[in-house]
Give the backbone structure.
Amino acid sequence: MNITQDRLKILEIMSSLSIDRASRALSKSLRTGARISLSKVSIADFGETTEKMNEDQREMISVMVNFKGNEGCKLLFMLPLEGSLILTDLFLRQRIGTSKECDVFTESAIQELGNILSSHISNALVSDFNAQLIPQPPQVHNDYAGVIFTNLVLEQGTIDDKLLLIETIFEISGTELECYLFLVPEMNSFVKLLDSIGVKT
Amino acid sequence: MKKILVVDDAKVIRMIIRQILTRNGFEIAGEAGNGREAFEKYKELRPDAVTMDIVMPEVDGIQGLKEIIAFDNQAKVVMISAIDQRDSLMESLRYGAADYVVKPFEDDRMVAAMKNIFAKKQEDTVGSRQ
């Protein structure tokens, strides 16, 4: 993969702006101070990241979203079960602690979270950088972090051997939940996008 | 009381819209989880208006809108989506959407959208009688 540090910096800024917009939308949805902050943008090896995910033994609820359009991209958000229950209560505007187990409402809340995040990331990339991408319906899974990440790798691996990982920290209701938000742009299409907006370095 | 069909693939959003609308004097005619179900329910229930999500599995909200408008060109369909992009808005309006509400929305915005489409319908009716 051939990407310079300068281009990586631009991608970091693009990601940061889009994630910031998604964070504000999510906060408005939940009527609380939900905040997503960018922690790292890097080009990662599939194998190394899968290994890291395999070390996380927590049961996770995840949502994966594919984008269609000129710029290929995937979004994967995973959070632990207890965080999913908090999120469900916030979505349903009920007291935190009301949801006790993962049910159809929990899955629906995570599905909507994926919808809001992906739509607002796409809105930002379209309006600010002339990208063309529209999110597809979110897919929700319940499994261990390693298994969920492997599914992403299997899908994305056929396109790129390495992936651009945009890692984030997600804070909700004053609690910093250890969860993962991966925005995985398909590199070739994003390099073309950088070319089109004049980032030639 | 105006009857509304609520269409969204996320159960939590259907529940939130249901709560907002019933609190504000509307009746929920039914719910659907994609564009195909929406069309079937529309034919069956003949609601006064529809709230329609766009990104949904199997048949999306734009297709659902097209089918409903083809069946009933007086149908009042309010698109509700987190996609805030010009192309999506223009496509919805071109196929006959009455309004477009961006998620996340304030309760007031949703209620205003529903009230406006009925007020507009009434004005049109009055206008056509004069």
